[in-house]
Specification:
Elements (H helix, E strand, L loop, with lengths): L10 H11 L1 H4 L4 H31 L10
Protein name: Pre T-cell antigen receptor alpha
Organism: Brassica cretica
Keywords: Membrane, Transmembrane, Transmembrane helix
Amino acid sequence: MGGGMETNKNKFIEDWGSARENLEHNFRWTRRNFALIGIFGIALPIIVYKGIVKDFVSSISLLPLNLTRFV
């Protein structure tokens, strides 16, 4: 009843899907990759963490003195 509904494969989509499935086999460490891992994998999380800790410490110092012993 649903015959004649064949689809045409798009060569470019199939190539992209194949490359994505095999990315871990084709990956190469380059200077650019090291830089990206260093920035987004190490430096950015450290900066975000330090900003959160700094904000937390400054918010504690704004509390009245009698409430700081409960924090």
